Amino acid sequence: MNDYNEGNNSMILITGGAGYIGSHINKELNKKGYETIVIDNLINGHESAVKWGEFLEGDLNDFEFINSIFNSYDIEGVMHFAAFTSVAESVEFPAMYYKNNYKNTLNLLKAVKLANVNKLIFSSTAAVYGNPKKVPITENHPVNPINPYGKSKLMVETVLENESKSIDSDFKYVSLRYFNACGADPETEIGENHNPETHLIPLILDVAIEKREKIAIFGDDYETFDGTCIRDYIHVCDLAQAHIKAFEHLQEDETNKNPLKKSNIFNLGNGNGFSVKEVIAACEKVTGHKIKKELAEKREGDPAILIADSKKAIETLKWEPKFTDLNKIVETAWKWHKKLNE
C-alpha cells in the first residue's frame, strides 16, 4: 500500500493512527519511505483514514494485544497519539481520561521496554501550560494544567522523562506540545472528521454548508484587539513534518551521540495568533458564504491569548511550518469539508 517509498524501511508503530492527526502523520511517514503499523480502537478514529501501512484494530488497555505487535514486527520507534482529547469531556469524566490517556500509556511503555524499542514521539498539548503567565509561550513556561485532559498529558510526560533518565535504559522520547491543530491534507485523501466536532474552523464551515445554523462566539470583551480570544492555529501537515523531524532527531542521536539530540520537549505552533472573529472572516472569504454568529457566555478557563514560541523546534529540529497564512489553512479545510459532506 506504500506508493511513496524512498528507500527508508524503518518501521514505525502509530497508536491512534486512524484519528485526525495520526492519519496525516501516517501519510507523511509513508511518503518518506517509512513502513507503518497503525493501531486504533476506532472509538473516535476512522478505519477509512488508514490508507497507508498496515491497520490493526485494538486497544491499549489490552497489554497482550500490544505485546503481540512488538513480538510480530521489527519496530524501530513509536508515535503515540491514542488519547481522548476533549477538555470539556475530561472535566465531566476525569477518571475516564486518566485511565485512557495515562494508565493505557503505561501498558504501551511496558511493551516498548520489553521489546527494547528505545524511541517514542509523544503527542502532547499546550493544555499542560494552563493559563499562561506570558505569551508567546516557550517550553520553559511553568506547567500548570487546569483540566484533567491537560493533567493526563503532563502525567505521561513525567513518566517519559523518568524512563529516559533511568540508569539501565537507552530509552529516548520527544514530547510535542501542539497548539490548535487545523486544516486538512491538500490532496483531500484525509482530513478532520470528529463526531461530535469541537474545533472552531470545521464548526464554522458547518455553518457555510448549512449543516449548522450559526457559530457561537464565547465572549467578546477579552483584552484583545477585537475582544475575542486569540489562538495559534497550526496546520496538521506541518505537525506531521515535525513528528518526522523529531524521530530523525532521535535517530541522529544514535549515530552521532550528540548530547543536544537526546530526549526533548518542543512547542508546535504557527507563531501567529488569530482571533475568533478573524477566523470567521477568513472562512467567509474562502467559502463565499456569510457566517451567522451568536454571542455566548465566556467559557470558564478560556485564556484571552494562547500563542506558541516554536523557535526551539525550528532551530533544533530544522522544522519549518509551510502553512502560515490563515486563508491557505482554511482553504485546505474547506476543500476537505465539502468532500466529506457530499
UniProtKB/TrEMBL annotation:
Name of one Pfam family that matches: Epimerase
Record-linked InterPro entries: Epimerase_deHydtase, NAD(P)-bd_dom_sf, UDP_G4E
Cofactor dependency: NAD(+)
The keyword NAD is annotated on this UniProt entry: yes
GO aspect biological process, one term: galactose metabolic process
Alphabetically ordered keywords of this record: Carbohydrate metabolism, Isomerase, NAD
Record-annotated NAD-dependent epimerase/dehydratase domain positions: 12-257
GO molecular function terms listed in the Swiss-Prot or TrEMBL record: UDP-glucose 4-epimerase activity
EC number per UniProt: 5.1.3.2
Family: Belongs to the NAD(P)-dependent epimerase/dehydratase family.
PANTHER family: UDP-ARABINOSE 4-EPIMERASE 1, UDP-GLUCOSE 4-EPIMERASE
NCBIfam families: galE
The protein's name: UDP-glucose 4-epimerase
Organism: Methanobrevibacter cuticularis
